[in-house]
Amino acid sequence: MESRRVTIRAVLTWALVAGAAASVWREDDVGTARQTGVGPSGTEPASQSPWSPYYWFGESSVNEAMSVLFPAIGSDPLVCKTSEDDIYKTGLCMRLADCPYYGGEGYGSCGGGLGTCCVFSQSCTGTTNMMVSHFVSKTFTTTSPGVGECKLTVNPRHNNICQYRLDFDSFNIAQPDPSSDCTEDFFGVTGGSHAPKLCGDLTGQHIYINAEPGGGPIILTMDTSKTLDMKRDWNIKVTQIDCNSPYRAPAGCLQFFNETSGMVKSMNFKGIDPPDDEGPSYWSRTSTTRRTSQPLRPGSTKNDIKTSQHESSSNVLLSREEFIELKNKHILELSEQENDESVSNNKVRTQRSRRTYEQDMRQIQNLNYGVCINAKVGYCDLTWTQSKAHGAYSFTMSGDGSVPASELKSEFGVENCVTDYVSINGGVFVDEASDAPIHAVRYCGTKFPEVKTKAQPYVLHVTTDVDEGNDRRNLGFAINFRQNLC
């Protein structure tokens, strides 16, 4: 009992000293510090002044500690970093007792050890009204069929919520079908502004959902096919945004980047360099047995994929003759298996669930959304460039994306880009042949030029239609943006 009293007394003393110092420095010298960046003595930086608690504990620790010890009524808890960022990157800094009381789970300490970094996660049929929560795939740990409809209901935590941000910390479900439609597995959002039907690999992507203040909940729906065996996973962080928050995205922006440079990827994009300049490679679709990241060449078939998986599991380098012999043997075994009337229904379903190379990692059809870049003060224009980090095939939106890299070409203009394209208002690029500037809004094809624009607000509009008849192996795009100083 005595040790507990000593601990409580020490905590209160620390809080009072830190709070007093913080209030003294903030009230008396905040104007000076903001304008000159120095502490009360007038010589040292504010953060290095012994009069400031930030000198002893660090700004984030002090702020977190004060929010835990003296939470303001109606204020938001501060975001903290978890101790296990491979599972959850961030949480909310809360008192130890409050975290489990509200249904959360602690992942490390925060606020100088006075609080816990609390994470709120929900799975199928869950409900939440927390400022930050996670929609996770707790039911999937191995290769298995889907479960059908899985929903999370997100209620606004008060009547001044205007927006929700969804961060796909991890997201891997079934790929689109050959027509680029999400038919087997898909994800959607209802109850707020329109959100497209999505599927495939969205890890690292984000979207914004607008909502009416004082309105009802939004519902996140993950529908996975019960007839498709594969390993799925998702972890979607849902953040509620106040109507007067500086983090609110502008209207009409499904995605929003508040930075001077970065990369924008189309939904379900993951391109890599092709081998031997023979055409674009794709990451193989997860099969019923294991996930393989071995790139497959154009023209590969289901038999090639199985052979590839067999090789990757043995980790043995084969000569060309040995490879052909093994491949022929594997094809023969597969043929005999498929003709055997005693094959179980589970094996038949397993064979159906495998996808050929042609169907792996393609752009999603029927999209129509804006990607907005916040224009910064002192920057006068914006440059868009094709991502070199993702190889020559990092822009294949229309046409034949299976040609050698030397045959890739840009298309632009309303006449040429009518199906799948990106739009940039005020866009200007230099023609490679004539070295003359060309003004264009729409860009498509299998190559993206360097495009500059001064037209604000900065918006990259993405359009894909439902007709993929004349398109082959379109991955989508990965393009960089850079704001330029005046």
From TrEMBL:
<feature type="domain" description="CUB">
    <location>
        <begin position="407"/>
        <end position="484"/>
    </location>
</feature>
<dbReference type="Pfam" id="PF26080">
    <property type="entry name" value="CUB_animal"/>
</dbReference>
<feature type="region of interest" description="Disordered">
    <location>
        <begin position="268"/>
        <end position="314"/>
    </location>
</feature>
<dbReference type="InterPro" id="IPR058698">
    <property type="entry name" value="CUB_metazoa"/>
</dbReference>
<protein>
    <submittedName>
        <fullName>Uncharacterized protein LOC108672786 isoform X1</fullName>
    </submittedName>
</protein>
<feature type="signal peptide">
    <location>
        <begin position="1"/>
        <end position="22"/>
    </location>
</feature>
<feature type="compositionally biased region" description="Low complexity">
    <location>
        <begin position="284"/>
        <end position="293"/>
    </location>
</feature>
<keyword id="KW-1015">Disulfide bond</keyword>
<keyword id="KW-0732">Signal</keyword>
<feature type="domain" description="CUB">
    <location>
        <begin position="110"/>
        <end position="241"/>
    </location>
</feature>
<dbReference type="InterPro" id="IPR000859">
    <property type="entry name" value="CUB_dom"/>
</dbReference>
<feature type="region of interest" description="Disordered">
    <location>
        <begin position="336"/>
        <end position="356"/>
    </location>
</feature>
<feature type="disulfide bond">
    <location>
        <begin position="182"/>
        <end position="199"/>
    </location>
</feature>
